[in-house]
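Researcher: Sequence recovery benchmark, item below. Answer with residues only.
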């Protein structure tokens, strides 16, 4: 690549990082995209559950196209904070640094001392879904989970419904297998109820009671639909949509829901978490209030907490507790760093598109919404226009941080040394093909 007056470092090559790299490249600005993993797909590979074959493949293809742009240099297996220190980036001389590192740390459940029981009765969503997505791969050697009946899930958003689906799929699949019926995941994803109906069976016949999702508000408050209703009519409509979505999930996947329940304490026996103490709640004018005297003990084989994710705070970067401190809402510029910006889930700490919109962080919200919310169609032109507008502004910032040809060459020499160290020869597509894990649908010999 010939020297340019600008060179941007992007950490994280997934939805938000690859889109930023592409938008910059389209404006003639080269970038180096570092990802901690071999593959740059982030939550599309490790979060989005593996039954979303078409959506996963489509989004990965989009990422591939963007990262194959001639002005984008990819560097795999290079983690900011470990393989490269944040302080060293400034010394390298990049025009700007974009953090598109997602949100991989589970939001703590918030009961004092409960994290002592991780792996001993307490499970968090991100490693659980990671296991589910990869467990079928030959040689899988990361943390594994036993599926049991009667697990409690704490949550209420779309990801917690995915956790409930995983538990129900695994339970029903195993019970059917024991009765001589081999049913694959994709059939169960269409509808567990339908599969059972066709076999003339019920959950009860299989001896399954199912998992239970505990949500602290009402079902109609669940953050299951996009949009920002404000008028009474809009709010009533959104509430009806949320109830419909949840009822649809429940009738297909047969899990239990306990709304208006908030966990307030743990029940421990020996060295294990064996249950939680819940309080019932009521919601008035949008505020949740616990009802005094409504405490009850509920026991579970284990509990899965699915209450959201937070970005990793990279050592050396100022933060406000569990998220990055942003001093400029348009560029998502990090407080105290004139040329460091955050994108995607790393800003909001959430995978929830709607809440990102509320925070008004143009770049992050638009990148995610434009390419994931609209899962079946092309990105919404209005959203794309907003992304372009935000990047116009970012571009003018970057153009104020010109670098010399010597600095450009020096950075690219250092980048090449890192690529050599991890064995990446700059052939993006062949690297991806070499590292793509074995897909469940190929093992089953079916197309989905
Ligand atoms: C269970 C589940 C289901 C979901 N379903 C949907 C859905 O149906 N529709 C929808 O719109 N969204 C869904 N989402 C959310 C969606 O997947 C995410 O919002 C989106 O993919 C986030 O993109 P991102 O680029 O911001 O972050 P990520 O995908 O998290 O990408 C971050 C990238 O940064 C890399 N990285 C992290 N730290 C470092 C570091 N220190 N140095 C270098 N690289 C680093 C990671 O390896 C990763 O590749 C779901 C999420 C989950 C968990």
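Model:
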């Amino acid at each position: 690549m010939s020297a340019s007056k600008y060179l941007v470092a992007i950490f994280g090559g997934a939805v938000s990082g690859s889109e930023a790299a592409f938008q910059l490249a389209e404006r003639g600005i080269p970038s180096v995209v570092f990802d901690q993993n071999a593959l740059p797909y982030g939550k599309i590979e490790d979060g989005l559950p593996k039954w979303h074959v078409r959506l996963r493949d489509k989004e990965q293809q989009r990422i591939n196209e963007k990262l194959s742009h001639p002005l984008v240099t990819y560097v795999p297996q290079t983690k900011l904070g470990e393989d490269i220190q944040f302080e060293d980036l400034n010394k390298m001389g990049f025009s700007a640094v974009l953090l598109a590192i997602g949100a991989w740390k589970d939001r703590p459940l918030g009961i004092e001392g409960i994290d002592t029981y991780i792996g001993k009765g307490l499970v968090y969503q991100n490693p659980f879904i990671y296991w589910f997505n990869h467990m079928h791969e030959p040689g899988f050697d990361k943390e594994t989970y036993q599926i049991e009946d009667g697990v409690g899930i704490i949550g209420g958003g779309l990801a917690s419904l995915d956790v409930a689906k995983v538990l129900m799929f695994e339970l029903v699949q195993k019970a059917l297998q024991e009765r001589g019926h081999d049913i694959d995941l994709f059939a169960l994803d269409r509808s567990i109820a339908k599969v059972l109906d066709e076999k003339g069976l019920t959950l009860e016949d299989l001896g399954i009671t199912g998992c239970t999702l505990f949500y602290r508000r009402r079902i109609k408050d669940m953050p299951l639909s996009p949009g920002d209703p404000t008028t009474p009519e809009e709010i009533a409509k959104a509430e009806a949509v949320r109830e419909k979505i949840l009822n649809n999930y429940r009738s297909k996947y047969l899990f239990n829901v306990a709304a208006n329940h908030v966990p307030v304490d743990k029940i421990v026996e020996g060295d294990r978490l064996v249950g939680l103490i819940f309080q019932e709640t009521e919601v008035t004018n949008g505020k949740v209030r616990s009802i005094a005297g409504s405490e009850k003990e509920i026991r579970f084989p284990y509990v899965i907490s699915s209450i959201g994710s937070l970005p990793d705070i990279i050592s050396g970067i100022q933060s406000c507790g569990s998220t990055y401190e942003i001093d400029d809402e348009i560029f998502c510029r990090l407080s105290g760093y004139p040329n460091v910006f955050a994108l995607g889930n790393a800003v909001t700490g959430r995978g929830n598109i709607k809440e990102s919109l509320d925070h008004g962080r143009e770049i992050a919200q638009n990148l995610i919404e434009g390419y994931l919310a609209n899962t079946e169609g092309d990105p919404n032109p209005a959203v794309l226009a907003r992304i372009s507008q935000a990047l116009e502004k970012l571009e003018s910032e970057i153009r104020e941080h010109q670098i010399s040809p010597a600095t450009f060459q020096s950075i690219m020499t250092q980048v090449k040394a890192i690529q050599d160290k991890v064995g990446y020869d700059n052939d993006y597509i062949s690297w991806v093909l070499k590292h793509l894990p074995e897909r469940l649908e190929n093992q089953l010999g079916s197309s989905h």
